[in-house]
Specification:
This protein is an alpha/beta fold. It is built from 10 helices and 12 strands.
């Protein structure tokens, strides 16, 4: 089992190094990322993500199960560092920390590294600018049982702490690949995926395409929508009807609606896909 250390100084090099991981340049250089929060770390451990260091501060604990998280992380080989309250406050990026923060390796996977079933449901996100939106898309993809999320022409680092937070840790549950648009299109064509592109300018509604087979739902940037490359490559372009004054939804909301429609179609085809209700975490 890994060891436990204690840090009481705000100028400790380990603290400075962890704080620097909020910057993308340092994450890219070190190939490490931050994972903060009880739910996020619990899900990381459940999915066998290899936590390297776990920082804790009992003064911030909000429940009674933190000890289980610490024990699981240490049993898996993580170093445990107990922090003074002011030290953990410096480490945390949250207004109300819960006393648990970890570091671990980058999430990195190529298209060729994806293991996909014949009827795979994929979520493809092009040029998503906001970490919160990408995290929410991951959470929705997990809820829909998607086989993977593919990020193309990435504007947001998938290892951003805000992606982890917005995803509630599902960034560790859903396989993620990052690749240029042209490579993703070639990958999907080779595997005969139906590519459903979301755009407010489409004539067809999002309920029209058959999404029960191998399907990739494609959404674009918040500001510009999908590129012409994707719109030209898509099997079907669809829109969500807008009955108010706005002409489009937030990209994560649109992705959630399309994923839910794919799930509805698949359950209608095979009712045995309906899972039992989740118990409270």
């Amino acid at each position: 089992m890994a060891k436990t250390l204690e840090i009481t100084s705000l100028t400790n090099p380990r603290v400075k190094e962890a704080v620097r991981l909020r910057q993308r340049s340092h994450r890219d250089e070190s190939r490490l990322m931050l994972v903060e929060g009880y739910r996020e770390i619990k899900r990381a451990l459940f999915n066998r993500y290899p936590i390297e260091t776990l920082f804790t501060c009992e003064a911030f604990f909000m429940g009674t199960h933190e000890g289980e998280i610490i024990a699981q992380a240490m049993a898996a080989g993580a170093e445990h560092i107990v922090c003074a309250k002011e030290v953990f406050a410096k480490l945390s990026a949250r207004d109300r920390p819960d006393g648990l923060l970890a570091t671990g390796p980058h999430i990195e996977r190529t298209l060729s590294g994806l293991a996909l079933p014949g009827d795979a449901l994929l979520m493809v996100a092009e040029s998503i600018e906001k970490p919160g939106n990408l995290g929410t898309i991951l959470r929705s993809a997990d809820a829909a049982g998607a086989s993977a999320v593919i990020v193309c022409d990435a504007c947001t680092d998938v290892n951003n702490p805000n992606v982890v937070r917005a995803s509630i840790g599902t960034v560790f549950a859903v396989p993620i690949a990052v690749a240029p648009t042209e490579e993703v299109i070639a990958f999907l064509r080779e595997r005969r995926f139906t590519m459903v592109a979301a755009t407010p300018h489409a004539n067809a509604l999002y309920t029209e395409p058959n999404m029960t087979g191998a399907t990739a739902i494609v959404v674009g940037s918040e500001q510009y929508g999908l590129s012409e490359t994707w719109l030209a490559a898509a099997t079907a372009a669809v829109r969500i009807p807008m009955l108010g004054q706005c002409d489009s939804l937030n990209v994560s909301a649109a992705a959630t609606i399309l994923l839910a429609e794919a799930v509805r179609q698949r359950i209608a085809l095979s009712p045995d896909r309906i899972p039992a209700p989740h118990t409270h975490e």
